[in-house]
Amino acid sequence: MNKILLFLLALFTSGFTNAQVKTATVTIDGNTRYQTITGFGGFVCSGQFAYNWMSTAEIQKVWGQNSDLGCNIMRLYIPIGQSAWTQSLATAQVAKSLGIIVFASPWSMPAEWKTYNSQASLYNNANNYLLESHYADYANYLNNYVNYIRQNGGQLDAISIQNEPDMGVTYAGCIWTAAQITSFIKNYGSLISGKIIAPESIGMTDNYANTLLADDGAMNNLSIYAGHQYSYIQSAFQQLQAKGKEAWMTEYLINWNSNTAVAARNFDWQKDAFDFAGSLNNALLANVNAWIYYSAKRFYGLIGDGTYGTVNGAITKRGYILSHYAKNTIGSTRVNAVWNDNSKVLQGSSYISLTGDSIIVMVINSSSDTYSLTVNLPFYTKGGKSIVTTASVNMVASDLTMGAETLSPVVDISASSMTTLIFIKSSDTAIPLVVTEKEKDNTLYDVMGHRVYYPQKNVIYIYKDGRKVIFI
User: In which element (H, E) is residue 90 found?
Assistant: First the structure.
């Protein structure tokens, strides 16, 4: 009988032996700051998906301050040829009613302006370029599109020079070298009324960034450096940010049917959600100001199209994951965060609100384990909010209550989850008091394990536990 009971107990508990409660720590340095987050969004219409691919109700579900997803950046496709521009107008008009940021990207200019009189960027395996003799024509063409949208009740805040100028394709496209696109922006960018985006290359690689950086004339006309996430995200664009430009990731797509032997596969949370969340988070850690997904409506998009298990017009898991960032980090600034996680599983990023009274921590847990996460904050808190998405729930919010003020709240992280933690400041860690030279003891104290950086000299900081930090 004892053997039978032991067997049954083992059988009952076998499903739980792999899952554990693990511990991890993240320490937030509110004084080491990186990029400000401009926003998030998606691509709405193109010749591929039809220009009325998304209904007004679906657009309102994805974009706008009061939308379900909270996205604030929309990418439009510029129809080829001025007579076709009307196809994108209705969407631009809806965008204006939502008060969001809108930019447009061209795949090709009129074919007759190009080397081989073809819309494709490859012609018989040869690169198809815009002829330099038509640079002025193209600048005026782009400017006319800007004016057409604006004068007909639409919204257009910026315009790109070219979608993927470094990608040879047999569909609409155009090849631009880094030198060519830099020359165009320098010499003809002033003809375009609005912010210029470039180069929208297949990666955010250094070659285009370094060429633009070396040309002051081009830099004067460029507003936003952009690239896609199909190749490396390198670091030279951060030098453009240091000169006042923003850096946007303007296209990314993970098609879950493309990397499998099974031709038709529905979305799988464990296979697909964390690839998407990790790619988004990695781009933000690389310092981009904005992140724009490819087609907002598709089976792999932010809302479904009715294929591969998605419901037409319904928000997908990828939509909810993006919404974690869109609803909680727009306008904030990314801050340094040091993770101590022996399991090497947790991913994340951290942000401080515009007013400095909240810290937002994104936590991606792809494992079957739950975590007890200690968050070392740069201020005291009494509480905040936790927002969780898993395979079974979408953005479920609950209050975090600490009882007493703490610098190091401990929160539970669900297994296989995307979690947003928001901590609201209840008081500062220190009260600054001016002291005389005689009173200083030339010591820099470490308080509760936090590295402290204060730019004010001759100031002593008295902490609530009585310890001091003096900046010399």
Answer: helix 89-98
Contact 435, 458 (CB under 8 A): yes
**Residue 365 · residue 371 · CB < 8 Å:** yes
pLDDT of residue 19: 75
Measure the CA–CA gap between 144 and 150, rounded to whole angstroms: 10
Q: What is the largest CA-CA distance in the chain?
A: 92
Cα torsion through 407, 411, 416, 419, rounded to 10 = -60
Rounded to whole angstroms, the Cα distance separating 272 from 277 reads 9
CA neighbor of 224 nearest in space, from 194, 197, 192: 197
Output phi, psi for 155, to 5 deg: -115, 130
pLDDT (0 to 100) of residue 311: 97
Task: Report pLDDT digits (tens) over 90-140.
Answer: 999 999 999 999 999 999 999 999 999 999 999 999 999 999 999 999 999
Q: How much is the pLDDT for 20?
A: 86
The pLDDT of residue 383:
96
**What tokens does 301 get?**
């998009």
| Calpha distance 182→189 (Å, rounded) | 10
CA–CA dist 174, 118 (Å, integer): 9
Please give the angle made by the CA atoms of 269, 270 and 275, to the nearest 5 degrees.
90
- Which residues in the chain come in under a pLDDT of 50? 1-17, 432-458, 470-472
- Give the count of beta carbons closer than 10 Å to the beta carbon of residue 326: 24
Q: For residues 94, 95, 97 and 98, what is the CA-based torsion angle, rounded to 10 degrees?
A: 130
pLDDT number for residue 432: 47
Are 159 and 196 spatial neighbours (Cβ–Cβ below 8 Å)? yes
CATH number belonging to the domain at 19-32+333-427, selected among 2.60.40.1180, 3.90.650.10, 1.10.260.40, 2.40.160.40 = 2.60.40.1180
pLDDT at 460: 52
Q: What is the per-residue pLDDT for 263?
A: 65
Domain coordinates in residue numbering, the chain: 19-32+333-427, 38-329, 433-471
Q: Which fold has domain 38-329?
A: TIM Barrel (3.20.20)
Tokens read off for 325: 């960032």
User: What local confidence, expressed as pLDDT, does residue 450 receive?
Assistant: 41
What pLDDT sits at residue 438? 37
CB atoms within 10 A of CB 284: 22
